[in-house]
Specification:
Structural class: alpha+beta
Radius of gyration: 23 Å
Number of strands: 21
Helix content: 25-40%
CATH superfamily of the largest domain: FAD/NAD(P)-binding domain
Oligomer: single chain
Strand content: 15-25%
Length: about 475
Amino acid sequence: MQVGTMNGTVIIGGGIAGLATAFALQACGSTDWTLIESSPRWGGKITSARERGFTIEGGPDSFITTKPGAVELCKRLGLGDQLTGSNTGKSATTYIWSGGRLHPMPEGMMLMAPTMILPFLRTPLISWPGKLRMGMEIFVPRARGDEDESLAGFVRRRLGNELLNKIAGPLMGGIHAADPERLSLKSTFPMFLEMEKKHGSLLRGMLKRSKAHSTHGGKRPSMFMSLRGGLQQLSDALVAQLPQDALRNGCRALCVSRHAGRYRIDLSDGSSLLADDVVFATPSYVTADLLQELDPAMAARLRAIRYVSTATVSLGFLRSEIAHPLQGAGFIVPQSEGRRITACSWSSVKFQHRAPDDCVLLRVFIGGSLAEELAEQDEQALVKLAREELQVILGITATPLVARAYRWHKANPQYDIGHAERIAELEQAMFRLPGLHLAGAAYHGPGIPDCIQSGREAAQAIAARHAHPARAVRSESSHVVIQ
């Protein structure tokens, strides 16, 4: 195999992190780069479809606004007029399936702690012993030391087992498709650790937080935003802004090795590239395979990051054929309830422009760390499963107008206990390989804004390395990727 084109940078992986890296390199004035993607399409898990007036999201359907990267990028790409916030008020109510019926989440709950006392006292979702145990949280001492703790361990210690099983576990664990007993609180919800340290109590801290917000008045902005035509508008707009001759999809990177003082990337079409910098915007286990020959120890560290499989099923119905009022954003299902789904989002209530006026669109979530085997079924089986579960929970017997299932095999990185320490060790090991950069969901955050930021940081590191080669040495305090 002969070495082909010389590149300043090769980016491997054309999901949102890889596309954001390319866009940021272009913004830095760099034109000497190539983006490689193994699949025929760009965008990774971001995929949207239009069918019979429904807008269906196969992967993520929104991004958080407290991290500004996604909103800022949408505006830079001319998509500002397409931004739409999730509905608020009663339309934002989340329900929990417990004891054979749906219970509204108590008003004022923030993930696992209440900001209002009376709604929590009135809810039948938690028993009185459970409420009493939660009220005793103000007497639970702070944790000693800074050892990482699982989400389950933290909630059980501070708020009790019932709140963990019925609310915190399915809600917070569900965000990461994770097992609460293994999920690192430090790497996923550090604000609660900080609240414990600062106030000595989550309840005390949440009540102070609520009081501080109420003094500012006004309507709070939506925490989640999307795009009217689907999130694929974002990846499509990025691709349209990039030079087409620098984009190579349907071509897989096979191996990265050293060659003549540079990095050699062998490709599945028989060609190879030479580059000064390589950005790995691929799942960490894919990156591990690419680096196996170059640095087996680094590859082993990357494989230590665990992934799980998930699936989504979107079902569109005539509104007149569904008796349930659907007044809310959807529901979550605790594992203890023995159902085969983890959650259901009422997509057309959560966001406008998702369904025709006389229809509704529902999206069912399957699999994750606690039930991966369910997500590995074929599309027809997934649709059947989703319909059967919605018949039990929502009483829906109608035939859907549209039905689409998306399977995501080993696509969700797990931030297990000790994740922050593993990533710190990984970044330290990267010092031995100048010119290699990591981006994507596996390191410092799995959300769209995190992935965009990781690509931006990788591009900035490359620009700095070549602008000041003598000084462009990673310091211990800097991250290879920030997510």
